Amino acid sequence: MNGAESLVRTLVAEDVNICFTNPGTSEMHFVAALDRVAGMRCILGLFEGVVTGAADGYFRIAGKPAATLLHLGPGLGNGLANLHNAKKAGSGIVNIVGEHATYHITHDAPLTSDIAAVARPMSDWVKTSSSSMTLAADAAQAISVARSAPGKIATLIVPADNAWGPAESIAKAPPTPAKKPVSKEAVAAAVQAITGGGQCMLLLGGSAVRGRALELAGRIAAKTGCQLSTEFNNSRQERGAGRVNVQRLPYPVDLGLKVLSGVRQLILVGAKTPVAFFAYPGKPSVLINDSCRVTVLATVEDDIEGALEALAAELGALNVSPAQIAAAERPTAPAGALSPEGIAAVIGAHMPENCIVVDESITAGRGFAAATAGAPPHDWLGIMGGSIGFGLPNGVGAAVAAPDRKVIVLEGDGSGMYTVQALWTMARNALDVTVLVFANRSYQILRGELAGVGAGEPGRNATDMLTIDRPDLNWVALAKAQGVEAGRATNLEELAREVARGMASKGPYLIEIVM
Amino acid sequence: MNGAESLVRTLVAEDVNICFTNPGTSEMHFVAALDRVAGMRCILGLFEGVVTGAADGYFRIAGKPAATLLHLGPGLGNGLANLHNAKKAGSGIVNIVGEHATYHITHDAPLTSDIAAVARPMSDWVKTSSSSMTLAADAAQAISVARSAPGKIATLIVPADNAWGPAESIAKAPPTPAKKPVSKEAVAAAVQAITGGGQCMLLLGGSAVRGRALELAGRIAAKTGCQLSTEFNNSRQERGAGRVNVQRLPYPVDLGLKVLSGVRQLILVGAKTPVAFFAYPGKPSVLINDSCRVTVLATVEDDIEGALEALAAELGALNVSPAQIAAAERPTAPAGALSPEGIAAVIGAHMPENCIVVDESITAGRGFAAATAGAPPHDWLGIMGGSIGFGLPNGVGAAVAAPDRKVIVLEGDGSGMYTVQALWTMARNALDVTVLVFANRSYQILRGELAGVGAGEPGRNATDMLTIDRPDLNWVALAKAQGVEAGRATNLEELAREVARGMASKGPYLIEIVM
Q1: Inter-chain residue contact B461 with A35, CB threshold 8 Å
Q2: What pLDDT is stored for residue B197 in this prediction?
Q3: What span, in angstroms and rounded, lies between the C-alpha atoms of B204 and B373?
Q4: Are the C-beta atoms of A216 and A222 separated by less than 8 Å?
Q5: Cis amide leading into A150 (omega within 30)
Q6: Which of the ends of chain A has fewer CB neighbours closer than 10 A, N or C?
């Protein structure tokens, strides 16, 4: 057994059995080990942003880390943006990054770079393997880190000679640190905040928007009349009929300030104090008002469900029916010209039960919440780190994690282009993903942002930097060129037909919505 | 005038008048300034690897830096791989990376990351602007660094409030440090090496493969009988009829060892001691033998032409006719089935005078040198950092730098996919680029590498990681979807027809060569 094999066997033994890959020479022993070790499914991406984004989506749905296999510093560099998104989402990932053989690094061959330095900004843990004999133990440690709440980015750098050198055994991952229980004092403070008078909001983030935690939040709201909200984006929000329907904080600063203006007590449950996505001249960074008191019930590293359980118990809310339960109610698919409301209604009308929605719709999707709140139960995955190019790869990962569920990717045309290679991975693996591309031929959000930062109206030169027309991208052709069936919608009837096609398909399908 | 405007005006005043961009909110004041400042041409890329790779190609041809405009840490991350290639190529680039407003960073908004840490591994110089009033001076410093021999990566991080805050004036770039003259001792040592007996090789790199430096090397070879070689790749090699025809060192270690086996005196002229691209078990990292003495005449930071001038003078070679002048001689375009030799001949038969060849052909292109040596004079640009995804973006940059020259990009299908978005930028800007995609449906190089590192023959699982078939990519459709005309060649007659089409076109044209 060589080091690479001990590494792969350790991953498999620890149930890390999906590896999203884009390997090169320094990773060939890992690749070769795949022929000798059963139980590891490797999924190739044609660009590393696909690889890391897929690992993010996989964790969000599977609840356990995947591995990635990346080629040296530049390969890791290509994966950084979606590692950033994954880190902000609290997704656990075990990155395996090949390095030159230890004795080769000093010679400064063309691909030499400081891999650990590239890794650190987007990793929670970085280690360079020092020997083939200890590679399995390093991998086991990486797995343990990746599993830590809420999920961490562990990057293990593997010099080639440690991959091909001898190894004796696999290693067992150290116990994952348990989620921290919240203190009685924190619960008492939350009770005080919620019952002390003044408008109170429970701001939910992380796992607080799922399962029993979400239900408990609903019970607390029913009992106390407090408001419920989530952060602007969520790693995975459970929504739909029969579930507690929690609104997101809005993106625009002014709207955020308005929503939060009356709040006097803000209780953070896996969320952070709301801040503006960007700074704007003359506007505050922090969206709560000066008279609002903030109480931290639980961070994303804490036992959020336990914290809400304790809070509900203290408030006598355990047996209260949750507030804001969404009724089973779908919009009727409308006809006519494309409009934000019409598109939202078509989507809401077609979402199948238990589907997974990956939302990188940016401007186009801001109105989707209402039209989809009463759809059958589903998961909604948001872009946590704000780095576009997240949607298509996350769709890959989600579909790999849940082959029996329909994945719907809501994608901007601008953002979709960053990691357009993900379509090929969908085709190769026959992933059950329907992609809706909102083709407005521009970085639409930036038009608002340009005004928002006080830079006025764009002239000709500035407009060139905000539009992606001339030539228009043909998304149907981009999809078909990569083996993905596709269609186009220019009105709501066509959209309904196309969405129905996507829902009926068992493989990937892309719809270009010509806005 | 705000900081952003002082920045743009400083760039333009210093003749940095091309900016490859992929901006976001934090860069909107820079974008807005484009409407007020004449003389800056901004070229949008739909992915940051296109942006940084284009700046690399631009420098190689224009001989002066372009700017890039990138969005925060993740945007810079997406550009790192091609910055790595640019850094290894000695290309000068001024990266402008937007950052949150200084007071906003502490709030850890979604896009917050340690931008300087992301920048450092692939930059020669990194600075975060501290005030809108000094932003112009920082930019001037960055320009000076980028101009330093052979060309450096300067990354200036600009917090949004320094872009929108007040500024008073532009700044003048400090004088660029002159190329270091080589010492008399270095020249004397080279004379000793070349005349002292034993086979001698001048290994040329950097600017030694261009212009008068190349010619001087040819004269020295004619006078002394020394061998001439270049490194495996060159940033920009001048080749073709009437020029000194210098062979590249081969990529495979065994071939490299063989070529260098008889060399007893190695003189480095802008080159480094030859090392293997990767380490392989049981094979050396350094490709020269133990009895070979290495003499450094000049590094890439030195005055290479001056060094060769002095050496030629010492050797009495200044008026000798250069050795190895390539005769004007083209292959006849062959017919029949596609073969490496046949493809090479078709390319050699069609290359127009003064064209620029960007070579990311990886395995497919290893035999192109002989068939193109006698083509009309041209430049040949290699992938210096080894990180694939370099070719299409470099083609963009080269074409922007030299709108009157034909650019030919030789591209692997695997490598082309990393930055496939570059095709759109070619279309939008009507760039005169013909792209040949060698569609062998695999990472062909990795098959050899797998064996090379002692990992044997790939089985089914490993093969899945080395192939990019199932589904096959349709490159003609990928091109047309982005507005680039395209055709397909399945035999040499079709290839000749398609290459002729590309050469006749004044805009981008892509040829999928189905291997």
Answers
A1: yes
A2: 87
A3: 17
A4: no
A5: yes
A6: N
Task: Identify which of A21, A110, A424 has the shortest CB distance to residue B88.
Answer: A110
pLDDT for position A362: 82
Question: At a CB cut-off of 8 Å and minimum separation 6, what does A30 contact?
Answer: A4, A7, A8, A23, A69, A96, A98, A158, A163
Burial track A314-324 (b if 16+ CB lie within 10 A, e otherwise): bbebeebebbb
| Residue A242 predicted with pLDDT over 90 | yes
Nearest to A461 among B42, B109, B482 (CB): B42
When the pLDDT of each residue in chain A is averaged and rounded to a whole number, the result is 97
How confident is the model at residue B333, as a pLDDT? 81
CA distance A46 to chain B (A): 6
Q: What is the CA radius of gyration of chain B?
A: 23
Beta strands at B41-44 and A237-239: parallel, antiparallel or unpaired: unpaired
Identify any residues that bridge with A202 across adjacent strands, giving them in sequence order: A228, A267
**C-alpha R_g of chain A:** 23
Please tell me the distance from the alpha carbon of residue B370 to that of residue B331, in angstroms, as a whole number: 10
Q: Which residues have C-beta within 8 Å of that of residue B81, sequence separation ≥ 6?
A: A74, A75, A77, A78, B49, B52, B385, B387, B389, B418
Tokens coding A39 = 């139980």
Query: Which residues of chain B are under the pLDDT cut of 70?
Result: none
Q: Is A309 helix (H, G, I), strand (E, B) or coil?
A: helix
Reported ipTM exceeds the 0.85 cut? yes
**Residue linked to tokens 């060192």:** B249
Instruction: Using CA coordinates, name the residue in chain A closest to B482.
Output: A473
Helix (H, G, I), strand (E, B) or coil at A87: helix
CA distances from A168 to A141, A175, A221 (A): 17, 22, 56
Kindly give the interhelix angle for A135-147 and A3-13, rounded to the nearest 10 degrees: 30
- Phi/psi for A459 (5° steps) reads -90, -160
Domains of chain A: 3-164 (3.40.50.970), 184-315 (3.40.50.1220), 340-514 (3.40.50.970)
Look up the pTM and report it: 0.98
Structure tokens belonging to residue A452: 């928002």
Q: String of b and e for B404-423 (b: at least 16 CB within 10 Å)?
A: ebbbbbbbbbbbbbbbbbbb
Averaged pLDDT score across all residues of chain B: 97
Strand-pairing partners, residue B244, are B325
Looking at B30-165, which runs of residues are DSSP E strands?
Answer: 41-44, 66-71, 93-99, 125-128, 153-159
Q: How far is CA B291 from CA A11, B195, B262, B265, B301, in A?
A: 46, 17, 9, 9, 28
Give the tens place of pLDDT for each residue, A392-430: 999 999 999 999 999 999 999 999 999 999 999 999 999
The alpha carbon of residue B355 and the mean position of all alpha carbons in its chain are separated, in whole angstroms, by: 15
Query: A88 contacts in B (CB within 8 Å)?
Result: 110
Q: Are B439 and B413 spatial neighbours (Cβ–Cβ below 8 Å)? A: yes
> Do the chains contact at A25 and B78, CB–CB below 8 Å?
no
